[in-house]
Amino acid sequence: MSDLYVHTQDVDGFGTVAVRLLDAKADAGLVHGWVREERAAFWGMNGLTEDQVADIYAHMDTLATHHAYLLEKDGEPVGLLQTYEPEADRVSECYAVEPGDIGVHLLLAPPEAAGARSGWSSALLGAVATYVLVVLDRRRVVVDPDVRNEKAIARFLRQGFVAGERVVLPEIDIPDVYLPEKHAQLAFLRREVAFPG
User: Fold this and answer.
1) What residue stretch is flagged as signal peptide (predicted)?
2) Is 111 helix (H, G, I), strand (E, B) or coil?
3) Closest to 66 in 3D by CA, of 195, 172, 193
4) In 3-state terms, what secondary structure has residue 165?
5) Rounded distance, CA 38 to CA 30, Å?
6) CA 126 to CA 194: how far, in whole Å?
7) Is 170:181 a contact under the CB 8 Å cutoff?
8) d(CA 86, CA 84)
9) pLDDT digits (tens, 9 = 90+) for 113-161
10) pLDDT tens for residues 184-195?
11) 42, 151, 186, 187: which could join 146 in a potential S-S bond, CB 3.0 to 4.6 Å?
């Protein structure tokens, strides 16, 4: 397996989940196909072209604080994972960042023609939790889904995350980055909750 893979995990009854570094150019078509769908509206990239998506991830690749990955199940791409240092992100203006915190954004690929499968999200989130809390040796994960994204919020809470405050993430408008204001539901998962004992 190439050095682009930062984590692989066999999940009982599910398959092998791998976390692979995103290639901004080579993976742009795949990611663009996911983020342009209406179901991904909360990701904030609906109206972007494939080249614009590639540019965003090429810019992210230059940052030491933000990283993008593809999640794969048995070698097939099934999700987009972004990690970030909360103190280097607008979320830090909305909660007290603790040492060992890591932020996560997660976009799961659309279900195949057969439709959603039971346990799919849970298995992928479990592998993500292992990667960020164990492999990266972090103490707590923070997520900030849009308050209207009830499915994502419920998914995180089922996984053991604890709901924090509802906050307004401020607009960011600087060269290379524009993010509109976002009403978000913060949620947190501590390592000792995800991996007791």
Assistant:
1) none
2) coil
3) 172
4) strand
5) 15
6) 8
7) yes
8) 6
9) 445 667 889 999 999 999 999 999 999 999 999 999 999 999 999 999 9
10) 999 999 999 999
11) 42
Q: What strands lie across the sheet with 15-21, from one edge to the other?
A: 5-11, 15-21, 66-73, 76-84, 101-108, 140-143, 182-190, 162-169
pTM: 0.93
Q: Which residues contact 65 (CB under 8 A, 6 or more apart)?
A: 84, 85, 88, 89
d(CA 159, CA 147): 18
Amino acid, single-letter form, for residue 163:
A
Dihedral class, residue 58 (left if φ above 0, else alpha if ψ from -120 to 50, else beta):
alpha
Structure tokens at 162: 């604890």
Buried b (16+ CB within 10 A) or exposed e, 140-151: bbbbbbbeebee
Structure tokens at 37: 């769908």
Q: How many whole angstroms separate alpha carbon 97 and alpha carbon 95?
A: 6
**What SS3 state is found at 30?**
helix
Place of tokens 């933000």: 66
Residue 169 token pair:
């993430």
Question: Which position has the token pair 């682009």?
Answer: 4
Q: Could you tell me whether strands 140-143 and 182-190 are parallel, antiparallel, or unpaired per DSSP bridges?
A: antiparallel
Q: 143 near 104, Cβ under 8 Å? A: yes
